[in-house]
Amino acid sequence: MAVDYTVIVVYLAGMLAMGWWGMRRAKSKSEFLVAGRRLGPAMYSGTMAAIVLGGASTIGGVGLGYQYGLSGAWMVFTIGLGLLALSVFFSARIARLKVYTVSEMLDLRYGGRAGVISGVVMWAYTLMLAVTSTIAYATIFDVLFDLNRTVSIIIGGAIVVAYSTLGGMWSITLTDMVQFVVKTVGVLLLLLPIAVVKAGGFAEMKAELPTSYFDPLGIGGETIFTYVLIYTFGMLIGQDIWQRVFTARSDKTAKWSGTVAGTYCLVYALAGAVIGTAAKVLYPKLGSPDDAFATIVKDELPVGVRGLVLAAALAAVMSTSSGALIACATVANNDIWSRLRGIVRRDGEEHDEVAGNRAFILIMGLAVIGTAIALNNVVEALTVAYNLLVGGLLVPILGGLLWKRGTVQGALASVIVGGLAVIGLMAGYGILANEPVYYGLLASLAVYVAVSLATKPTDEAVLATWRERLAGRSPELASEPVPAHQ
After folding, report:
1. How confident is the model at residue 240 (pLDDT cuts 50, 70, 90)?
2. Mind telling me which residue stretches traverse the membrane in this protein (predicted)?
3. Which of 131-140, 323-332, 412-421 shows the lowest per-residue confidence on average (mean pLDDT)?
4. Residue 484 to residue 486: CA distance in whole angstroms
5. Cα dihedral value 178, 181, 185, 191, nearest 10
6. 0.90 cut: is pTM over it?
7. Alpha-carbon gap, residue 99 to 478, rounded angstroms
8. What is the per-residue burial (b if ≥16 Cβ within 10 Å, else e) of 82-119?
9. Cβ atoms of 305 and 190 closer than 8 Å
10. Half-sphere exposure of residue 270: CA atoms within 13 angstroms, side-chain side
């Protein structure tokens, strides 16, 4: 394992070096939070693919392939579909808004007062996304170094927090590009063909496994529908995804390079399912489907290649973790804390935006590591986060982008009713049930439409400013906090 250890250690040292280099680039709030809005097509598509394809997409995607066969690709496939829909239909408009958070977009569209409540919901989602990604380090470091769970979480989490805190989005962008290349080589170009060959090829796989393993809908129609509802729609509104859209050099870059990233996700989805299917042939009686990835890597790959593929899994986890961490810190600082600070801040008080955001990444990073150590049921935590995100925020966000008649009262009612409905239904049906997100989303939509129609339309001056920003003809007004005396 000495060669494999060397590969991993060099990779981790490289991540920290990227963080140090990124620190020298991040001299302003825009540079620190959205990489100066300067990413071109190659870097944008690579980093976008890196953030959406995390540990769940890699280790979990292979596990679903092990359990269900080719239809196990649907979870990651719906993530790709969501990224494609975001890129084709919404990303150009989102990029032209020149904001930093989803809540700033809601304030701009509805004329204020929607940001704090939506910020709290988005903060909870990004925090739990970062926590679940951080917990995944335990699995990988256990395979690599036989470390216990807590030590693994601390080591992996500390590296991500370090490079994210140092250089913000520039560091994360640079590390994500490396992680994208490592994932592509490790999973698509090495593990996929080796797994298929070791399993005897597709003919042998078909002979060994039930026909359901090669049924595209074998996982079940209801499961696929739930994946679409949670992951496809979740891609449209998550702060972690939007913050990457804000890094694009232009609206065309956001649209077309995002489309490339979405297409890459579809390929990655199928690859994970095929690897899992091959693992089922090789190891038909594993204790857990999620063990399939680590088992096939440990037992079937040659020295050196094994280290690279494990680095690919580590890359997948780190890219999602760092993206969720900076999103969590951005929402906590810009949507929650800065608004409270704005109420009590003295006129003319100066503050360092980069230092403030760097401090919030460090604070949120420590909170993520602590929560990850304390938490046991990751699936339930992530389900709560996605249910709240989709049930509470999908309708007011898409309503604001698509329906002129939506009002701030309708948006606030939609967030509150949708969020409370999801929480109440999870208590009744169970956290992992499908009904909470179904009925919560319907309640959110009904309240949004009803309250919007029953209240005064949004002021025309607000809508005029909104249209100017959507068209890209207005300066970056909403990106900085409004002083308390204005």
Report:
1. confident
2. 6-23, 44-66, 72-95, 116-140, 152-173, 180-203, 223-242, 263-283, 303-332, 359-378, 384-403, 410-431, 437-455
3. 131-140
4. 6
5. 70
6. no
7. 6
8. bbbbbbeebbbbbbbbbbbbbbbbbbbbbbeebbebbb
9. yes
10. 8
